[in-house]
Amino acid sequence: MNKAIQKHPDYKKYVIDSKLQYFKPHASKIEKTFAEEISSSLNRESKFIVPKFFYDKKGSDLFEKICTLPEYYPTRTEIAILKKLKTELPSFIDDSFRLVELGSGASVKTRLLLDIFTQMQQTTEYFPIDISEILAESSEQLLQDYDNLRITGIIDTYEGGLEFLKNYDDKNNLILFLGSSFGNFSPTDGKIFLEKINSTMKSGDLFLIGLDLVKDSQILESAYNDKQGITAEFNLNVLSRINDELDADFNLDNFSHYSIYNKEDQRIEMYLKSLVNQSVVISKSGLLLNLEKNELIHTEHSHKFTLDQIKTLFTSTGFKINHTWLDEKTNFSLTLVSKN
Ligand code: AVJ
């Protein structure tokens, strides 16, 4: 191809077959390594580990398990709402739309949307955007199950992938961001993220986002403190990951899972609590970590929203709301927005 007319010079295209292709940036932008991030986030007075590190293979499996727990209402509720979209979403989209997903869709949720798209369209394009390359397995499976599907994976950050898509062509995109993953952002970062998404959207594009709602503290706290202790295992697993990948010697017996609902800030706060005074070596981060008994390492914020806040959030970041769908108990929401 002539370099001068190449449309995406920063990405390499991998064509697997007529139905599956990938785009991957040549050189991933100067991102900090796991070792560096851990070294800086634990080497300070208020210690934290960012939640994206939960998701190694074991952590992803544990999260899948969380999604099926009786206490963890979000997944089940969002699926129930998505099922209602089957009759209602078609009036918002047509043949010109492709489905874009932030995060790769191995899940039933993606399939519920693909059911809608593939029934309406001759051929459906699905563009998952994900940094992890496990994209491959789930794509193969989807292609086996949907005849008229074409998949283009973008192996990049959400922002990077959307920026890529902006210059890709002028087909309309319905961008999915499900599971209340948005709840991990601080209010400030969340706004910046939405503005970024807005800036990559064309005027006809749609954005469908799943957000968890403010509710009774007890319901929230039991969703993050399940009886079987799977959430605890999920939280503690990040220490095992650091042990394995960064050559550290965390003794998991010396930590406990701690999670509470902060009503004022409307968020679940998750921590790992040090049960004793202890020192931990993290070789690859070059760190000797001293922890006091009862000291907390922050691992996650999961923000919850009111319907009014959802309205303000989108109108203040350049969107107009097309529709918000809720379950009967108003536990969870799906909001469809477009550029204002
Ligand atoms: C994937 C961020 C939506 O906040 O509910 C579940 C992660 N953490 N249980 C959430 C999670 C503990 C989940 N999100």
Automatic annotation (TrEMBL):
InterPro entries named in the record: EgtD, EgtD_Methyltrsf_superfamily, MeTrfase_dom, MeTrfase_EgtD-like, SAM-dependent_MTases_sf
Keyword Methyltransferase part of the UniProt annotation: yes
GO biological process: methylation
One Pfam family of this chain: Methyltransf_33
Residue ranges of domain Histidine-specific methyltransferase SAM-dependent in the record: 34-338
Domain of life of the organism encoding this protein: Archaea
Protein name, entry field: L-histidine N(Alpha)-methyltransferase
Biological source species: Nitrosopumilus oxyclinae
Name of the encoding gene: egtD
